[in-house]
Amino acid sequence: MSEEPIDLSALDPSNDQLRQERLIRAIASRAQPALAERAQWHARAEDSVARQVVRWQRGLTAAAMLLALPAAGVTLWQSSRQAMEPLGVATETSSQIATAIGVPADLLPYLTPEGPSR
Amino acid sequence: MPPVTQCSDADLVTRTRRGDATAFDALVRRHYRHVYLIALSILCNQMDGEDCAQEVFLKVLHVIDECHSPDRFVAWLSQIARNTARNAVQTRRVRHVETLDVAQAAPADTRIAERDELRQRLQRALATLTDTQRSVVVLHDLEGLDHASIADTLGMTAVSSRQHLFNARQLLRAQLGVNAVTEFIHE
């Protein structure tokens, strides 16, 4: 018998919708000042972050440029050096090949495209 | 931004923290019944339950930054509701149902008058139970929570919740008489 629920629906606050609505509105009304204070505080906080970004924007841009210029120079220098490296590799390879096939060292200058220097 | 009715509790908590009145209103509407029933189960009085529910939501707004797991907002809210109601009991701000309610309500509709009378009888019967029995029976038979949820809300085991419910129902039936409640329902 005690497995059957007791009907307590008379205690349900939603029986009186008007009363419940009035109570909910009363809560909202009493909460209004605290909510407004929170909204203001967050607006101020967000505003100050935005202001900080604007304030530092010029300085940050200048600092970024100062860093970017040397970095660009280094990059250009490195890329021009890399472009020259394949020639060096080719020269070294041809002399190695000559030695490997038993060409005498005296004849090596004659194997380069320019010929022996006079 | 999605409409508040589609937002999760966690989203509404986040928006309330930023002072969004619509989000707070949605939280109140979504959980008012739950908070009121917890308060009622402890205070045993409609008006005290309503006052307590108001106090709970205002307190929640005040300490909402301390809700560390917004996805478990209901558990946090229930804890505040229970503590607030218990404090109200301790300070004995509880009013007598019989005098105040009857004087204030004076409903013209007979059916409403009957429901008010039944409500008062139920409140008187509930008042004879222990706090735990009352909480369990209200949360189970009125709020519709299962034993696992009640156990989680009240900090007990599900088996214990079952036992309290069994005892509470027996006591309530003895107080009200078996036909007392059903007569009203089947009218």
Describe the structure.
- The complex is a heterodimer of chains A (118) and B (187).
- The radius of gyration of chain A is 42 Å and the shape is elongated.
- Chain A has 118 residues and is mainly α.
- Chain A has two helices and no strands.
- Chain A has helices at residues 17-100, 108-111.
- Chain B is mainly alpha-helical and 187 residues long.
- In chain B, helix 3 (46-62) packs across helix 4 and helix 7 (131-141) crosses helix 9 (158-176).
- The longest helix of chain B is centred in the first third of the chain and has 23 residues, at 21-43.
- Chain B is globular, with a radius of gyration of 18 Å.
- Chain B starts with 8 loop residues before the first helix and ends with a helix.
- In chain B, 39% of the residues are buried.
- Mean pLDDT of chain B is 85; it is low at 96-103 and 182-187.
- The A-B interface holds A 1-2, 4-15, 20, 23-24, 26-28, 30-32, 34-42 and B 16-21, 24-25, 28-29, 32-33, 36-37, 40, 46, 50, 53-54, 57-58, 61-62, 115, 118-119, 122-123, 137-138, 140-142, 165-166, 169-170, 172-173, 176, 181-182, 184-185.
Distance between the termini of chain B: 47 Å
What is the number of helical segments of chain B per DSSP (H or I, 4+ residues)? 10
Q: Estimate the global geometry of chain B from the Cα principal axes.
A: globular
* Biggest sheet record of chain B: none
Provide the succession of SSEs of chain B.
HHHHHHHHHH
Strand content of chain A: under 5%
Number of helices of chain A: 2
Determine the strand fraction of chain B and express it as a percent band: under 5%
Shape of chain A: elongated
Regions with little confidence, pLDDT below 50 for 5+ residues of chain A: none
Uncertain regions spanning at least 5 consecutive residues of chain B: 96-103, 182-187
Q: Tell me how many strands of chain A there are.
A: 0
Based on CA atoms alone, the radius of gyration of chain B comes out at 18 Å
